[in-house]
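Record pair follows.
FIRST:
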Amino acid sequence: MAIDYSSYRDLSPFELKDELIRLASSRADRTMLNAGRGNPNFLATLPRAAFFLLGQFALSESRLSMSYLSQGLGGTVRVEGIEGRFDRFIMDNASHEEATLLGRALSYVRDQMGLQADRFLLEMVEGILGCYYPTPPRMLELSEKVVGQYVLREMVGGSVGLDTTDFFATEGGTAAMAYVFNSLRQNDLIRKGDKVAIGMPIFSPYIEIPQLAEYGLEVVAVQADPALDWQYPESELEKLRDPAVKMFFCVNPSNPPSVKMNDASLEKIASIVADRPDLMILTDDVYGTFADGFRSLYATCPRNTILVYSFSKYFGATGWRLGVIGMHRDNAIDARLARLPADAKAALDKRYSSLTTDAATLKFIDRLVADSRAVALNHTAGLSTPQQVQMVLFSLFALMDHEGRYKATLKSVIHRREEALYRELGVRPSEDANAVDYYTLIDLQDTCSALYGEDFARWMIERASTGEILFRIADETGIVLLPGAGFGATRPAARASLANLNEFQYAAIGRALRHMVEEYHAQFTAQRG
């Protein structure tokens, strides 16, 4: 089937995906295998079960008030005696493992974190009922502490204290990205024509948003090298020394190479920040929880770094839309706001005048909250309280998993899928201690060279673009993969998610890809006589 691939070259890989799905699903005699999107097919069931059981307790608490008026009517929750009533509820449901989790969770926040049990229960019960506006709008007070403890344990290993970090609960990492870009622009921290550095390859919206007319930013690519196991060469990181580069955006572990930044790169960036204390950094660490011994840039450059984390992938919660933005309370971005010229400060005083009479003291993270609701709706801002409760339960579930069983299980599942794909393809996957393997980049040249030698690999690169091959794969096999070029990869490659199909299906993908390479090799051999 002849397809003019050129008409699709400018599409985002996620828009191109729709065309590939349409082609892959065009035949009724086969099953489409969509490895193009990273929505996992695994999810954490126990903290969800705890959420639903907690909802039953919350309803019983509400029914203690005002129910005499009408069947189905409840009232606001009473804090007096709530801990005793909760203990009895847990005992009555002791046969359910989710009740055990809830009981342990209360013990953890009381005995390990030193929070008041009755206040925590009141926040959770009112939160799951959704009967009040989120207060404070940035994040519920005790929820912020619990979620913050989880995020900082996973991202920085305790090197940055909970009492030094503010968190803003958002509708997933997607909203976090949108809010950060918008507030940077609204607060005159990035302007049209400014340079921003982007660690490539990367989740494609980080490439696409700066190109929008309202931003008009000049992108400086900081390119990871596949020959260095997808780490950034020092020469690439040196680009961050340019004083014209206002900000560095990165995803760590990377998407799609799925490799965490090594210690040498972290320390190199920290040394550049020491020389450039005005450099702003955004690190999107959604895949960090799949790695052992992970360290975020927030661990080495906390004052300069905006930390974004999403619960979507690790807990299989893409539909919940749960994420946070974390910022150090003494940060370089607030310092930059203080140094803005007088005319910019005056404009911002007017912008935020409905919130405070002293806008100069308004922190950037609180400006994020206000800007997320067009400032005027700041009083009704914030992530819905039931969402925040589920975020807390996910966090407590992970914090109390002292043996790391959940993480070990997820890692084992993903690694087996990777092995199945590459075994059937006939090549060995890379062995890298920094790899988390949530995605894999199937490099066209490396694969062809490993199977049939360098001459064939060169022949393939000259004659077949990755995009054309991906359309042929979708058409002939029903398999959907995404082009690495759409994520900023410089070598022809296809991105496959290892999270959203089962092991036998990845084996089928490997076999189909191997069969296609064999067909190309037959053409190569025929042309060579």
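SECOND:
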Amino acid sequence: MSPLVAVPDHIAQARRRDGLAPALPWRSFADLFKSRIHDRALVNRPFLTYRDDDRNIHYTYSYAEFGAVVQRAAAFLHDSVGLRRGDRLATLLFNHDVTVVLYFAAWLSGITVVPINVEESPEKKRFILDHSEASAVCCRHSYMEEVTSLQKELPALRRVIAVNDEGFLEEAGREARDKGKPSSKSSRLTSLGSSLDDEALIVYTSGTTGLPKGVVLTADNLLTDADAIADWHAFGADDRLMCVLPIHHVNGTVVTLVTPFYCKGSVVLNRKFKSAAFWRRLHEEAVTCVSVVPTLLEFLLDANEDATACNLSAFRGFICGAGPLLKDTAARFEDRFGFPIRHGYGLSETTCYSCFLPNDLSREEHRHWLTGYEFPSIGVPLRHNTMAILDGEGQPVPELARGEICIRGGTVCAGYFKRDDANDAAFQGGWFRSGDEGFYVRDERGRPFFFISGRLKELIIRGGVNISPLEIDDALKSHPLVRFAMAIPFENRYYGEEIAAYVVPRDGTSLPTEPDLLAHCRRFLPFYKCPKVILFGDDVPYTSTGKPKRLELKSRLASALAAHRDSQFTER
């Protein structure tokens, strides 16, 4: 497998940067990496601070210390694991400093990272490991038995590497946090031939077909979006971005790992989000910005913590996206806490963010674009990419008219891995077609402010996480008393969307109950994918061609589900 991504013409057309910002000055990720860790002004400045409240862990790497640890990890991957440029390394890890080190070590060496959510089912994990052709996987030691059992079915998977809090278990006697100087061998790794066109990530995202699709992101994609995000928000060496989102997702990875490194800033990585510690953490770490999803804004509103005792003079506001933001949530949050929500939009296929609300808006203008229309605006395109609203024929639609949100430029991915069918559907006419419905409105300066009004796709986005409804359908249909089942989203204050299910029972004397079906789903699905409400009916909503009418059903049941808009469903 060549380490360079061979991009078909129709995908290359959607990635062109004609008339946009100039190309990056770096030749590879290793080029950027060396420039940062050898910058005398950065040597003793903090880059990565890791906080784990449950274990009372708190420590910081300087740029020099981080560089040394990353180079040693790269040497381990090269010498002990046998990975080379173009190989793929899967990870079954959570937010941890070792995970960050591993990512950077792989990119430094031209190795592709395939992050896998530890909460996925064994079947989904096996599919991703197999489809991605991963040569090795790094997993927490607690998942070692599960992964080695899958390895028997995966001929490409040569190594399974256990990781604990100190690093790779194979490196007995030498902790990953050792602050010593890198060996000469590991230093030479940074000069190995590599390119911005190397694969950096294959991120598997749920699709309407039910099977995950592997989004191929290059090193150029990661650095281009980091450059765009840093430019838009004027991030620099004095900025400290806090990460509370999972770093197996592009939001946590790109916004709060790659972008701080790119702009010479620093990152505060949390093991997990905790509303009770949130404002105190901003104070303790002098955080300037944090990236969240709308769900976390609701949790902070409910917690209603008193932040007046915290010194938040450094904090400038929230980056928010990756899920439906309600106008009411945005207005209540800004009124309660006084910090601006920098609302934006993007997809894994566009690396992360493609647009944001401008930061030069007055307070009144900002509130207008958040609440003055049916939906909050997702903002204006970033440099390196452009956006348009197109009809089904690929033609631009007038202002305020509904169409499909389309994106073109340097943040667009290199395609879906081994999915020519998905590539043909998504890359058309020189654009990446998002599958999301939207419209735009120009301001007095002529800038197009975009809005997302719905999804042409049928994905459910719960708390910023994409969920395929077909997976839920299948779990419900496996119940012996269920004739037909269809998962549908409904508007929810906490998660933007929550999951309901419409069920048609089989004919007979016994009928399924809601508690019975909910318990049945928990046998097959993690809690976040399970329906929280079951509605029963007697008609099967299929089209004449046999396609389920999910969107029609969602609309038909909206009034019945409206009573659950403010419900917070918890695992029991």
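COMMENT: Confidence is low (pLDDT under 50) at residues 171-191.
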